[in-house]
Amino acid sequence: MVRLRVLSRLASAFTTPFSPQDFLRLVDPLSSARQLRALVTAVEPETADSVTIRFRPGKGWNPHEAGQWARIGVEIDGVRHWRSYSLSTGAGQDPAITVTAMGTVSTALVRNTKVGDVLFLAPPEGDFVLPEHPRPLLMLTAGSGLTPVMSMIRTLVPRRPDADVVLVHSSPCPEEALFAEELAELADQFPGFRLVQWFTGERGRRLDLTTTSDLDAACPDWRDRAAYACGPADFLDAAEALWDREEGELRVERFSPVLLPGAGGEGGRVTFERSDQEVEADGSTTLLEAGEAAGVVMPSGCRMGICRSCLVPLRAGQVRDLRTGEVHGEPGELVQTCISAAAGPVNLDI
Fold first, then answer.
1. What is the CATH number of the domain that holds 242?
2. Where's the 2Fe-2S ferredoxin-type domain (predicted)?
3. Staple partner for 230: which of 41, 77, 253, 346, CB 3.0–4.6 Å?
4. Which parts of the chain have pLDDT scores under 70?
């Protein structure tokens, strides 16, 4: 260990003002002692507005479980932005994300990512994963909510002869349905996997979960299955309400936090002290969104109030938790900017 430190100091003497790590990255772009990185190995179109981005992580990556997500960092106009994306490949396979062009970061990933690009990473997280013991499963998805469930299907269906999975997926039309060809092939090959494609353009509406009628038709034994759901907030709200009434078993993965209706208040002026920026924010705009709109480089992760990667010290003022409506804040308190809004003038130490 002492010898390594001596060698490091000697190397630094020859590379100053740069570090030896800077030169090592010219040879290996994944080499970094401070930040996990990944090399893009393939960009595969899924629909007109969606791609699957496959990547090879550097050292420090933990193999993902089916259904987990990871924070992905991408630089846009010299600013690094972080977002959380579900990993769409099966457990044990090289990781990939499937992204739809919605929002600044996702659109940049879809339109601009090329083989050989370097992404920034954080290790996989999340507990929206397969059950520990085999059992009949029902997967309810809509839109891009299919991505974590696709990881589960790729993990389970081809590998387990006793797999018993029903997928009911809602999308506008066949051309906009993610993984449509692969899912159809899996349904043809494996009798334990049944696919119900629910095209809203043909049926005139999304799968209705306010009653049991659509589920009874799509999967008559749905009450006997462990259910998983992922998709837009109203879709998941309806699913949770239905399963509560039926006293069934449902696991949900949300891409946005559950906010209390009417939790926003008067808002206020938000001052980002170290960045020397100020912005007026209304009571329903999160501090994270306000900072990004002002050009401040804000830490973030899940953007749902779970991972706590967005914590920033509060210097003055109070904030409102948009999930509960609670107003709180003391100088020095770490606030979650992704689910907090200004409750009057606010100063943040960033």
1. 3.40.50.80
2. 268-350
3. 253
4. 1-34, 259-264
